[in-house]
């Protein structure tokens, strides 16, 4: 694949503009508190990019992306919690050295499956691999049995419900409904300071671009075209000699990996992880981020996540009652009136306008004899 | 875990939990019937189904208050009027939604799912603004209070029996509508071959609207019945939507009998396990088993093998 | 011992809830033979193709292709074994260009990672160009398939099969729904591509059938009614009875 195949000039421009927004405009325009808030919004963009591949291109709608976001986030939170729960910090507990919520729930030793999360290397691997393994199990079971469409959506939603109930129910192991809170340091580096928050914002932005570039690579590869082909004519793809299930499993796992990274960055920037980010409601909201951006567009997914969350924060601060009405209306509007979202508006309305303007200035230049190039 | 209980106690536990399961079963059946009509026959996913149910519950709440204030002498029978009005209210809203939204999305099932989710958010907020965020309960008529002692150990609450009777009668009514009425024949015809059904003179557009409306109306009745055993809040509908979808899918989407059988097995499994495990683990295991079986048999328990 | 037949269908049966769409059907296809399957509507013709290519699971019987038992294989494995299938309604990828449609059908890079790192080298491009010329679409390579005419879509799908270079090609009503001019061009195209490979065709157009068929199999209610040369089946009283009797 040559470079121009990978990204044409228009797409490159889009990437550069987004990079300018994330790395220059937002940091200059916002104070640390707001910047951290935008960093949080951008963690949802990881999920939305995955959905743009799975749902937009591949037609696989998962209503359980919160599962993977949560798993990634919990892995990171477990590491940070263990680091925060030193015997000195937890000396007042009846069993010092274990996370506080375990102590409250009469646990006297750290469960075995928490042990590996003492290691940052293992944790970073787990942030990606735990969601991927989960996605693989779900995807393998569903796609090899040819379950798709609304059935897949409902079953992933059921999984989101199951995981939430499980996390809330097993509070001795998971922190229950409050989640894992009171996270302090990463290898001794205090993540609660303004400086740390600024740095984490940039790390998050950089990771987002890594994910965007991977997504772009996949979309522009033959696999990207196969996804679109599968969405429209699954049987034909099969009879062109492809094992459709494998491709679906792959893209579902890739989306899960993205979501896991987003979840981990959420934990780092916001300082906690809780089941409210795993369940049915956040999972379906992540779909709307992707839909608002334009379900096919990976850059749109980022803008969608930013704008919807910005609106959510703004409205729920001022008029909490309006927000649900607005969000509900957004779901309906984006499906019925703007199925291609912001990216669609851009390419159908704004771009032709820009092109007209450009061609006008060009023809004006051409008409001007003084500026015409010498023969 | 059984060692601590005597045989008689164990028997009583199973009987009581079994009966608790029957009440849960009735609720599942009531909710799932409407969904089975809409999803099974039309293939439409209505994520706002729970909110249609809650509308029925709120209608019942209003009617009970009106009767308590103005017609206390007739309070004993208010419920039947409330149920009828709940059917009308939810059904009418359903007709409107089909006209305004659903009919534009028949070819895009995943989009229908998202749009109806949006609808559910809007309805929840409206309920919250109108009725407040707190849960409301209706006063149950005297004759429905108390319980029937079967043996020394086993007691059965009367409102539970009432809800069960309701579930059975509404199932029968839906069965008769589906398989004995002209509308039912038309719905089934459209389900099998839409173009042909249109060609032989069935007004498919109107039948779709009516089907959606009736499904929503049945949800309203379910909500109405639900007030007899629990209280109603703006987000109560969302709690049940996943369970209900699983019930319908597990049963085999197009089969009414399957829906009832699957509601029975899911509710019994859950409530019997609930006694020995915590409520949340019982639910997790039940859902996992259901999802697991669906992975092995995606078409559900009762589905026809069809020629593609 | 070399097999005499490239495809042996024996005792093939499928039932949908008791309804036997194909009932103990046996037939054999020789290498380089062009077999045409005809029969009234509902005879089970398309179902037979579905069974061979793995789209529908058989209830009983065997389908052997070059010694492999196709009934145990997944669709994509059957394709890799050398069986190509064209559907009745043109099924092409409408959102992709003609070039991309052909590219996806090129028999390389069929694994997940093979597809991600698939390289569109000169060999691939030349082959796509060559096929596009064969199917009269060389000038439409960059056009979205959605904008093609019905006939052009049929050709594109045939091209997608050709690029796979299957040993056994199965075509379901390849000239249905075409204009007279398109039909003529298609017949010419088919006559060219059925050389050097075995072909099973479902077709109603008897003139066309007489033109291409080595042998004809007549199906009726999922069972074999008659088999042989075109002349033979046309004069078979059982066939006449089925076609004219009701």
TrEMBL record, chain A:
- Domain of life here? Bacteria
GO terms of molecular function = branched-chain amino acid transmembrane transporter activity
Annotated NCBIfam families:
urea_trans_UrtC (TIGR03408)
A GO CC term assigned to this protein in UniProt: plasma membrane
The encoding gene: urtC
Q: Which PANTHER family match?
A: HIGH-AFFINITY BRANCHED-CHAIN AMINO ACID TRANSPORT SYSTEM PERMEASE, SLR1201 PROTEIN
Keywords for this protein = Cell membrane, Membrane, Transmembrane, Transmembrane helix
Report how it sits in the membrane.
Multi-pass membrane protein
Could you list the residue ranges that cross the membrane? 12-30, 42-71, 120-143, 150-169, 199-218, 239-266, 286-310, 322-346
Keyword Cell cycle in the entry? The reply is no
Q: What is this protein called?
A: Urea ABC transporter permease subunit UrtC
Q: Give compartment(s).
A: Cell membrane
Automatic annotation (TrEMBL), chain B:
Task: Show the GO cellular component annotation of the record.
Answer: plasma membrane
Give UniProt keywords alphabetically: Amino-acid transport, Cell membrane, Membrane, Transmembrane, Transmembrane helix, Transport
Q: Does the keyword S-adenosyl-L-methionine apply?
A: no
Transmembrane portions of the chain: 12-40, 52-71, 77-97, 109-127, 156-178, 210-229, 241-263, 275-296
* Topological relation to the membrane, as annotated: Multi-pass membrane protein
InterPro entries in the record: ABC_transp_permease, ABC_UrtB_bac, BCAA_transport_permease
Intracellular or extracellular location(s): Cell membrane
**One example GO MF annotation:** transmembrane transporter activity
Biological-process GO terms, alphabetical: amino acid transport
Q: What is its main location?
A: membrane
Keyword Hydrolase attached:
no
Listed PANTHER family: ABC TRANSPORTER PERMEASE PROTEIN, BRANCHED-CHAIN AMINO ACID TRANSPORT SYSTEM PERMEASE PROTEIN LIVH
Q: Which family does it belong to?
A: Belongs to the binding-protein-dependent transport system permease family. LivHM subfamily.
From the Swiss-Prot or TrEMBL record, give the protein name. Urea ABC transporter permease subunit UrtB
Q: Which gene encodes it?
A: urtB
From TrEMBL, chain C:
Checking CDD domains in the record gives: ABC_Mj1267_LivG_branched
SUPFAM superfamilies assigned to the protein according to its UniProt record, in alphabetical order: P-loop containing nucleoside triphosphate hydrolases
Q: List each copy of the ABC transporter domain by range.
A: 7-246
UniProt keywords, alphabetically: ATP-binding, Nucleotide-binding, Transport
So which domain of life are we looking at? Bacteria
- What GO MF terms are annotated? ATP binding; ATP hydrolysis activity
Query: What Pfam families does its record include?
Result: ABC_tran, BCA_ABC_TP_C
Cellular component GO terms, alphabetical: plasma membrane
UniProt cross-references to InterPro entries, sorted A to Z: AAA+_ATPase, ABC_AA/LPS_Transport, ABC_transporter-like_ATP-bd, ABC_transptr_urea_ATP-bd_UrtD, BCA_ABC_TP_C, P-loop_NTPase
Name of the protein described by the UniProt record? Urea ABC transporter ATP-binding protein UrtD
């Amino acid at each position: 694949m040559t470079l121009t195949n990978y990204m044409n000039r228009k797409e490159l421009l889009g990437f550069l503009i987004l990079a300018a927004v994330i790395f220059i405009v937002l940091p200059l325009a916002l104070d640390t508190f707001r910047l951290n808030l935008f960093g949080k919004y951008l963690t949802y963009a990881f999920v939305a990019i995955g959905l743009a591949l799975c749902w937009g291109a591949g037609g696989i709608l998962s209503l359980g992306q919160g599962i993977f976001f949560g798993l990634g986030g919990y892995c990171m939170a477990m590491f940070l919690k263990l680091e925060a729960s030193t015997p000195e910090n937890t000396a007042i507990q009846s069993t010092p050295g274990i996370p506080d919520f375990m102590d409250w729930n009469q646990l006297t030793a750290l469960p075995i499956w928490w042990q590996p999360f003492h290691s940052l290397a293992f944790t970073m691997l787990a942030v990606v691999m735990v969601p991927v393994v989960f996605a693989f199990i779900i995807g393998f079971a569903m796609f090899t049995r040819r379950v798709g469409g609304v059935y897949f959506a409902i079953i992933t939603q059921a999984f989101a419900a199951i995981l939430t109930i499980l996390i809330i129910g097993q509070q001795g192991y998971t922190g229950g409904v409050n989640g894992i809170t009171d996270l302090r340091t990463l290898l001794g580096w205090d993540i609660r300071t303004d400086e740390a928050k600024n740095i984490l914002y940039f790390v998050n932005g950089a990771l987002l671009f890594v994910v965007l570039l991977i997504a772009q690579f996949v979309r522009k590869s033959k696999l990207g075209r196969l996804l679109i082909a599968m969405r429209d004519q699954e049987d034909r793809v099969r009879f062109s000699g492809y094992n459709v299930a494998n491709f679906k499993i792959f893209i579902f796992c890739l989306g899960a990996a993205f979501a896991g990274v987003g979840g981990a960055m959420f934990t780092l920037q916001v300082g906690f992880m809780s089941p409210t980010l795993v369940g049915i409601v956040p999972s379906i909201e992540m779909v709307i981020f992707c839909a608002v951006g334009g379900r096919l567009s990976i850059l749109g997914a980022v803008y969608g996540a930013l704008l919807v969350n910005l609106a959510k924060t703004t409205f729920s601060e001022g008029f909490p009652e309006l927000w649900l009405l607005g969000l509900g209306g957004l779901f309906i509007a984006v499906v019925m009136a703007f199925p291609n979202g912001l990216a669609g508006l851009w390419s159908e309305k704004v771009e032709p306008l820009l092109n007209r303007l450009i061609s006008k200035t060009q023809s004006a230049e051409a008409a001007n004899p003084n500026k015409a190039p010498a023969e | 875990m059984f060692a601590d209980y005597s045989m008689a106690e164990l028997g009583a536990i199973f009987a009581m939990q079994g009966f608790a399961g029957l009440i849960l079963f009735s609720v599942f059946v009531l909710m799932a019937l409407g969904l089975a009509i809409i999803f099974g026959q039309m293939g439409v996913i209505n994520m706002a189904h729970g909110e249609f149910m809650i509308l029925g519950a709120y209608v019942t709440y209003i009617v009970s208050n009106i009767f308590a204030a103005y017609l206390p002498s007739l309070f004993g029978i208010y419920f039947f009027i409330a149920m009828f009005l709940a059917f009308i209210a939810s059904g009418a809203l359903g007709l409107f939604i089909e006209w305004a939204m659903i009919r534009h999305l028949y070819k895009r099932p995943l989009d229908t799912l998202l749009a109806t989710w949006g609808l559910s958010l809007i309805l929840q907020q409206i309920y919250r603004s109108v009725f407040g965020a707190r849960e409301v309960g209706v006063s149950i008529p005297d004759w429905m209070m108390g319980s029937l002692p079967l043996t020394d150990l086993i007691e059965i609450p009367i409102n539970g029996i009432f809800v069960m009777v309701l579930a059975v009668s509404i199932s029968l009514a839906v069965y008769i509508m589906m398989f004995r009425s002209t509308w039912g024949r038309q719905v089934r015809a459209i389900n099998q071959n839409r173009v042909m059904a249109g060609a032989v003179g069935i007004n498919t557009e109107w039948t779709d609207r009516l089907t959606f409306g009736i499904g929503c109306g049945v949800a309203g009745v379910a909500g109405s019945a639900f007030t007899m055993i629990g209280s109603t809040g703006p987000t109560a509908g969302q709690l049940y939507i996943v369970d209900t979808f699983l019930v319908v899918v597990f049963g085999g989407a197009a089969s009414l009998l399957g829906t009832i059988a699957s509601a029975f097995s899911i509710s019994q499994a859950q409530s019997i396990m609930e006694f020995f495990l915590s409520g949340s683990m019982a639910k997790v295991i039940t859902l996992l088993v259901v999802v697991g079986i669906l992975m092995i048999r995606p078409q559900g328990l009762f589905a026809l093998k069809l020629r593609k | 011992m070399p097999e005499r037949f490239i495809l042996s269908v024996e005792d093939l049966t499928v039932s949908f809830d008791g309804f036997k769409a194909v009932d103990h059907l046996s037939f054999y296809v020789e290498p380089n033979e062009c077999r045409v399957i005809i029969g009234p509507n509902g005879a089970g013709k398309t179902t037979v193709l579905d069974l061979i290519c793995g789209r529908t699971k058989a209830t009983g019987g065997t389908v052997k292709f070059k010694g492999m038992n196709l009934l145990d294989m997944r669709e994509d494995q059957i394709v890799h074994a050398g069986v190509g299938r064209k559907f009745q309604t043109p099924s092409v990828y409408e959102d992709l260009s003609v070039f991309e449609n052909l590219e996806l059908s090129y028999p390389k890079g069929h694994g997940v990672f093979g597809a991600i790192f698939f390289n569109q080298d000169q060999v691939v491009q030349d082959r796509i160009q060559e096929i596009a010329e064969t199917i009269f679409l060389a000038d439409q390579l960059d056009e979205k398939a959605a904008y093609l005419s019905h006939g052009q879509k049929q050709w594109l799908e045939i091209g997608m099969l050709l690029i796979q270079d299957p040993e056994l090609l199965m075509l379901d009503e390849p000239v249905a729904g075409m204009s007279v001019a398109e039909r003529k061009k298609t017949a010419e195209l088919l006559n060219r591509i059925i050389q050097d490979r075995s072909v099973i065709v479902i077709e109603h157009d008897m003139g066309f059938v007489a033109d291409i068929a080595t042998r004809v199999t007549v199906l009726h209610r999922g069972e074999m009614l008659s088999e042989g040369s075109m002349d033979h089946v046309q004069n078979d009283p059982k066939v006449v009875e089925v076609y004219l009797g009701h």
